[in-house]
Design brief:
2 domains; Jelly Rolls; 6-stranded antiparallel β-sheet; alpha+beta; Arc Repressor Mutant, subunit A; 46% helix
Length: 287
């Protein structure tokens, strides 16, 4: 589950990019990029992964993801089977925001919005309902007409007082050496989440004593190593339950559990459903 780097191209003659993506399903594509990403998801429900956050999403989901925060959406059943799923994606850079505010100080709320997006933000249903028609109109406009519509949408988002931060992972160390140290550890955990991993091995990757490593990891992820690894395993199990017909016992083993009863207990504690009920919920279109 190591995230892949995605190269985002801003078109010639534009200062930001729009992607209009109609698909029969939303594939699990765990990736990151240095641009901000605003994503509106229409006619889909499933699982949303933002950094270390794993949650359900539904029709009209609207999320802003900060730079270099790994993310993906996953769904294999549209709400309306007669229509494709739609992802409306807007990409823009920190430099773009800075230039806006430098020339138009009235847009300072957008800068504050960008700052708070480092952890990812899920917007309230009320705000999403207001912003959705604005974003859906972008594909019908030329480049010049799109700009005021996007600014209107971002100002509406900046005014959402109940937008929910999603990930703890964005709270990375302030120093380059600290980021590199944490990156080495997370790389191991994301690649080998299904394996037993000794804390001493992770501490060695971070060039810290075991005691210092425990404090370092909890401070910068908000979780113990075991809690973080369990969340990765639960996320992988959810993906397999939704996208495959593999037996629950096989999924438990592939996600890292040797004991099916233990898997069932931890899954129920994390998701509020048993693995079988979770799968049935999505196959019935109620995810």
């Amino acid at each position: 589950m190591r995230p892949q780097f995605e190269h985002v191209t801003i078109p010639a003659g534009a200062s930001w990019a729009l992607l209009w993506r109609e698909l029969p399903e939303l594939p699990f594509e765990w990736h990151y990029h240095p641009e901000f990403e605003l994503t509106l998801t229409v006619n889909a429900r499933g699982q949303r992964y933002i950094g270390d956050h794993l949650g359900d999403f539904d029709e009209g989901d609207l999320v802003l993801v900060g730079p270099n925060l790994p993310h993906t959406w996953s769904s294999n059943r549209p709400v309306d089977p007669a229509a494709p799923m739609l992802a409306v994606v807007v990409w823009f850079t920190r430099e773009w925001v800075d230039r806006l505010v430098a020339s138009l100080p009235e847009l300072v709320p957008i800068a504050r919005l960008a700052t708070s997006a480092g952890h990812g933000l899920a917007f309230s249903r009320t705000t999403a309902a207001v912003v959705q028609p604005l974003l859906l109109s972008l594909n019908q406009l030329d480049a010049a007409q799109r700009m005021p519509v996007l600014l209107d949408a971002l100002l509406q988002l900046a005014a959402d007082q109940v937008a929910q931060p999603l990930a703890v992972l964005a709270a990375t160390p302030d120093t380059d050496s600290g980021r590199e140290r944490l990156g080495r550890v997370l790389d191991v955990l994301h690649r080998r989440f299904a394996e037993p991993i000794a804390v001493s091995e992770l501490a060695e990757k971070a060039a810290l004593s075991v005691g210092a490593f425990h404090r370092f990891f909890k401070r910068h992820t908000g979780k113990t190593v075991l809690e973080y690894q369990t969340q990765l395993r639960i996320g992988h199990a959810c993906q397999l339950l939704i996208q495959t017909s593999k037996p629950v016992g096989v999924i438990a083993s592939e996600a890292g559990w040797q004991n099916l009863a233990h898997f069932n207990r931890q899954f129920l504690a994390a998701k509020g459903l048993t693995p079988r009920d979770f799968r049935a919920r999505y196959r019935a279109g109620g995810g």
